[in-house]
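Quick entry, no commentary yet.
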Amino acid sequence: MDEQIIVDSSFSAIINAPIDAIDIPAWAFSLPDKEYQGCSPCHFAAGATTSEDGRRMSINVEVIGGVPMVQHYVEQVAEPHHLVLDSVSDLFTTSGRTSMKVMWELKVEPLDEGRCTFTNHVRTRPTEAFVDYLARQGIPFELFREQRKPVSTAHNKQETPFFAASIERFALRGKKNG
């Protein structure tokens, strides 16, 4: 089941700040609720907590394709220019509650002295509960994947420049205070 991918999408945008001013984990784990909401009309809430084993966790609530999702993103890699978060995300559908695995990777690479390329990469995979959820409804996995792909890809494409702008503001505020 782990080799089954629902959606794998990646988009990039420019950040007008030097690479040394950027700290993606600091941004992600202090992202104000309103700032998160401003990155997409699909975003409803964001907060930070810790997982059971003490790692930082970003909790995000959004609606993608009409399906409310609560994401429990636990840090896997947390470096200033690279953050990888994994979540077993809850989905609340008209047919019931289920879950899927979501990997959210954010990274920046220097473009020149004052600019970086930001990449927002999202990969979703089914959980066993999700495979059972589809089977109970008689929905083939391939059909679900084909229907979900354009919605999830459009969402990622839409939010990426807004995340980049938010990271840029965060970096430039830190640079002024530093």
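second:
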Amino acid sequence: MLGTPPAERPAMPAAARPNTKPPVAPRDAAPRVAAAPAKRRAGRPATAVLDQAVITSAALQLIGKSGYDGLTMAALARSLDVAPSALYNHVASKRDVLVLVEDHLAALVDVSAFGAEPWDEAVRRWAWSYRDVFSKHTPLIPVIAVLPVTDAPQTLAMYEAVSQGLREAGFPEERIISSIVALESFIFGSAFDVTAPADIFDPGSMAESTPSFTAAVRSLAEQGHEKPADAAFSLGLEALISGLGALRR
């Protein structure tokens, strides 16, 4: 048998080719949509952004509510709703917080009359403003009164204005700081007096045994001062200004 004629040979199957066309999705299939990136929510962040002004405000509120002893770094962090570590990114210690508070209050004191008005009028305006500022923050007085002014720009600016004014008025340089301290001691004490109760000098059942004092209290009341603390502050301040003026040269 010599083999099958060519016409009668069965055709060889074509080589399988890879299907390169993408699969066709069914007509009823929903088209795929790429997920959009999450959008940032509008509005302020849930946690307050910390800065020195925010920390100072929170510290003042905390001291007003709980006193100086209530001001701790942990309590301050809680009031700001932040972790203590976040607070330490802005202030290194409680002392740093107090310097911020001191500087904030010093910036509220009016020193604009120094260099523009006679020295006694400048001292008068400064002292009244100083007393009014601290009468609203009496828990801070025992702390601020002995807190160094190092690295406190607003506090130093206040003292510079007063010192320059006294120097230009003829105060000996060696008496300028002592004069400021004498005035501050009176101012701080008077700030407490603003918040004193109206009957603070009522002798009660001891009136007969303290006739001179009782008569003086009665006489003051008869003058009808709307704010007796203001009358006392004015009297003491004028005495200080008069006495310091006599020591200028």
